[in-house]
Amino acid sequence: MFCYVRCNSSNISKSWSTTSILRIATIKKSYLTSSQIYQSLKDKLTATIVNNEPLTPHIKKDFQKYWKLLPQQFSKQNNHDNETILNQIDMTTFMNFINKSKGISSTARGIYRREIIYLIKQNLTLVFQLIGLLSRQDESQATYLESSPSLSSPTDILHWCLNDSVRTADVVMAADLYLLFYKIYPHEKIYPTYQSRLINALSFDNPLYDHIHLIKYLELHKLWADKHLQYTPTPLQTSILSNKAISLRNSPSLSKTTLELLLDTHFLPNDQLRDDQIVIAYQLIDENYKLNNASGVFSNWLKIKDHYISITKHDPRIIYKIIKISTQNIIYRTICKEILWQLSPQYYCNNPLLLPAIIDYATEVNSLSLTKEIMNNINLHTKPENYQVVWFTKRCLSSLLKMHLKFNDSDGVDRVLRQINEKFGKHSQENYQAIISHLLQSQDIQNFAKAMNLVNKFPPETALLSYGTIINRLINWETKSNGNIDTNNSNANILNPMASINELLLKAHKYDPKHLNSLWNIIAALYFKRLLKLTFSVENQSKENDAINTTSLDIAKYIYVNCTQNSYPWSEIDSNPFSNPYPHKVKLKITNSNKFVILRNIAMTAIEQVRQDIFLWCCAELYKNGMSVKELKIHWNIMLKHSLRKIEFKDKKHVTDQLKSKEVKFIKHLLK
Question: Which residue has the higher pLDDT, 507 or 544?
């Protein structure tokens, strides 16, 4: 899919040779620099201990830097005797420094614990001496030492350090010491008791440290997974860890990775999920729904859909969200088809949440036969006591209105409009939007004029969504005609589409000057759509034999970054970005609700224009905002491989197997 430059082999060899020499020189220089920094820090910190200087914030930072460099230096030397501070000074001096601060400073406690870890296999005598001195000074440490059979093995000493850390509430340090130990002594045995003890420690409620606790949980899981070990969290641990993940607001990727890990853990031999995992799956589906991440909703639903004997045992709010987002995303509509087949008419016809969503699905797929079947089921299976709470809700009447409009049923439209007036006295934004959308199905000047006249009569508070619908249609027509609308054509969509857009946005801005309405999120997405599609179409047409100018992609990336990194009140965004002649100055309303739509649009254009760099940037942004690599693979493969869209996937394994055999090559190469 992406093109590569063909180079002369001799040039490659020559270039590689020169580059390799430079790289080796750079690595050597970097190594020496790293060693020099390490030695300088070590000498400075040794002097701090010898002189019994106070642990100032600056000194604490130096210890952090030293600990970061030490594992690397430790692994480079065959002789480790001189690689720790304690080998350089006498025990009395060391203990004087530690005792002065260990009661109030986790850094002081970290110093002696890390020294012990590094000395385990180099100087056991020194380790035992240090532990003995520490234990004699602390009653709880002495009790643990006396109750232990012996401290004869490296893991015994590790466990002493872990217990000592948990005793002083240094939970993150306990995890770090554990990870450090198995990094420098990878062949030592792992004991399940201490797996559980560490996860227990990380599972305590502590909002200030939830973020780092989850990072450590993931690091521990990776360590065990690399060693082909698995730890099964208890229901209580699962609940607390999932609550920690859910509470994170500024780390969507960390939150999602944690929740998916907890969801994917197998607890029983038959691989059945626990009820607490179902709650996690529901939370993931809900979060992905809010982000408009259909791939995330799809993949998590596949994990749990068969958990219950009947689909009706699932939370209907979750089923509703799955149906709605799948209806809106054409490549995932097979999910709706399967759910509808599994739901009994007696169930969905009496559910005020699901029935409108199912009607919307039938309308969107333009299936008259399915619509007739649903309407027959409604008449047959709706209980009399549910008529008012199911049929005559705003949501259901709105869905029925869209359905009758779609199939040109004028009698049905009149009947529903009359029912809405009788029941509610006025129309909702969705009702007005449905009428406008129906008028604009074709590019007809008379219908467009009707739509504009009608929308001008709507109350301002209910007209904004209709503005978005009109602007979307105008942009679609403009891009289809490559920006060259024939003003002499009777089917031209008003002489100047930009004038119509400007008229609507001026009215919208007048009513909503703070730009709080969701219309402005829609306008942001439409701005990118027009920028990418129109520019690409025009350039592609005008440069048939030349390389396509992909500058619009760079502009789109710049605008997105500028709008998401710079903080400004929504009142300052462009009320009409389409009229701004300076793209680099455009301000748009980009939020979690439209980020995924915008980024996927840019990424799709990057694929069309063979811009691998922009595509990967979009994927990185999607990942940062909560879309996992697995979900990215699922989305782009289903989007680009039409045969995958037709498959009714049974479970997550079925998806994995199908992707292996049908995966798009460049997606497989780029997303690993």
Answer: 507
Judge whether 76 and 69 are in contact, CB under 8 Å. Answer: no
8 A C-beta contact, residue 540 and residue 612: no
Contacts of 298 (CB under 8 A, 6+ apart): 326, 332, 335, 634
pTM: predicted TM-score of the whole model, two decimal places: 0.80
**Per-residue pLDDT tens over the stretch 248-264:** 878 888 999 999 999 88
Radius of gyration of the chain (CA): 32
SS3 3: coil
Neighbours of 525 (CB within 10 A): 21
Q: Tell me the pLDDT tens digit for each residue of 251-302.
A: 888 999 999 999 887 655 455 667 788 889 999 999 999 999 999 999 999 9
CA atoms of 368 and 201, how far apart (whole Å)? 58
DSSP string, 361-413: HHHHTT-HHHHHHHHHHHHHH--GGGIIIIITSHHHHHHHHHHHHHTT-HHHH
- List Cβ<8 Å contacts ≥24 apart for 19-25: none
Distance CA 320, CA 334 (A): 15
Residue 438 · residue 454 · CB < 8 Å: no
Provide the CA 504 distance to its chain's centre, in angstroms.
Answer: 34
Alpha-carbon distance 615 to 632, whole Å?
11
CA distance 486 to 588: 30
Measured CA to CA, the distance from residue 356 to residue 323 in angstroms comes to 10
Q: Where are the extended beta strands (E) located within 220-330?
A: none
d(CA 597, CA 455) in angstroms, rounded, equals 26
120 vs 60: CA distance, rounded Å: 24
Under DSSP, is residue 204 helix (H, G, I), strand (E, B) or coil? Answer: coil
Closest by Cα among 80, 269, 340 to 184 = 80
